[in-house]
Fold this protein.
Amino acid sequence: MSTGEPHILHGANPYRRMLMPDAMSEVDFSASLGATELTSHRSLAAHRVLGTFYEAETILLPEQGLQDLRTDFDLFYGTDLRRLRESSLSDLEDFAFGFLDDEVDVTGAWTVEALDAYFQHAVAEADAGESPALTAITAARRPTVAADTYLVQLALDGLTEASAMSKNLGGAYGPEQSALFKIFIDEFGYGVHDAKHTTIFAKLLRSRSMASHVHAYWNFYLAAPLATNNYYYYVSRDHAKFFRYVGAVTYAERVFAPSFVKMIATYREVFGDDVDLHYADEHAHIDQHHGRITRDEVLLALAKRHGPGVIPELARGIAEARLLGSWFDEDTAAQIGWADTIGYHRELGLKAAAESDEGRRIDLAAGSPFGTRSHDRTTALVVADGELDLVTTATGEPDRMTRGDAVLIPSGRLYGLQAVSPTCTYEVRPIADQ
Amino acid sequence: MIDLRRHNTVLVGHERYFLFQTETRWRMVHDRCPHRGGPLSLARRTPDGRRLSCPWHGTKIGVAALCRTALPMVRSGDEATVVLPGTSQDAPVSVIRRRILANLPPDADAETDPTDCNSSTGSAQPH
């Protein structure tokens, strides 16, 4: 659904998400995504829809009440969209995640000990590694804007935390079920709303003067973070993938604690005491326990109970979570780098525009609905008439462009445009990658 | 961790393992014929593709049986992580690049020179 609104941020309405209908119509859904395409426009478009479909299976109610949104509530959860969702969800999942079948392969004779050895290796590697996104924040010319960009990606899950996990709590599968539930109830503050992780994440956003309602920053979620968030729904919705989910959540819970320690150090460096890091502190602490519980009481316990038939699936989940986690970080780092160097990319854009043929012309009127998109190929955007703002971050100042200005947009980089003059025209010129 | 673009043989102590490809799947299997320890990495596939013929005494080893005893391995793109048997964290492991004839189809040139191998050594952490 289009918001139909010119605002950069989404309003407090969880039922409407800007999907950029024109950009969506360009997407060829006939050929599935490849492993190298996770940050592509095709991926962004698919994961926006997929994420919306998944969340329609959860309860979203606006804080201010439903009074003005009852119609949207009825549409979002209504029969028409449910039928559309149910008829296309599996195909969309194949499109978006089918590549994992080729990208990750688990072979050999697995034992519980081998599974644990692989798990320990994967997390040791994560502990020793750098976070490209956090490094990009530190290196940025505008580190506060860069740090906000990272928060926006965390907001995707941070404001609806553990929703995917909820799909694996029902049923009857013994002590492992109770162990998983312990983690779930931690996320929900043991029934105390003020302690709920989404509540303290909202506090973190507000300490940065950022909006804290669900999907305020919808327009700024990147493709790989969307894919990462969707992955946990993907392996949770289909209970045949339960063991993959367990591998993935065990890896995630184990690597979260040290990654939040690194995040705290970075954010203190950028903001000093002017940021509320309770959320990060909470995770740096509680995820040590979650890492231990998921390993000992869920992952290895399920492997022991259900034997070699399920262990490769558990290992596969670890590998997939590791892969997607690295893409999340790299995509975020790339967006921070691009948004932080628009001046340089404007110079490149002028050069590229001079060497390229005329492209597709698009008219934009002031007050048009705002949305963001990316391109599958590196693209030069050239302003042919009027004046517009190039928006690449949720909290930074946009870049004003007038007739004759250009900017180079690397493939996969997210941007939006707002007309400043009553009308303006720009050209989109695909550039041959060097 | 093995970079599959560069390596396909691993030496753990005195035991050698090699990457064996079936269809699109890679498996890390023992380079030792159960008969007299012949190098299965130099074996030829039988015409039906279901067995390997050991170059030492012609013993036929079923591909399915070989795959069942493969080392636990996770391939992610061009990387593979293998859980090696009986090694401590500090044990040395050599990773060797070598052309593996057992991966050739049965009708491939039988005279391919196994020394035409761009051999190199590296190190990998045992897991």
The beta strands of chain A are 104-107, 360-365, 372-373, 379-385, 387-391, 399-402, 406-409, 415-419, 423-430. The first helix of chain A runs from residue 21 to 25. Chain A touches chain B at residues 35, 102-111, 114-115, 117-118, 120-122, 125, 315-316, 318-319, 322-323 (CB under 8 Å). Chain A has two domains: 106-340, 342-430.
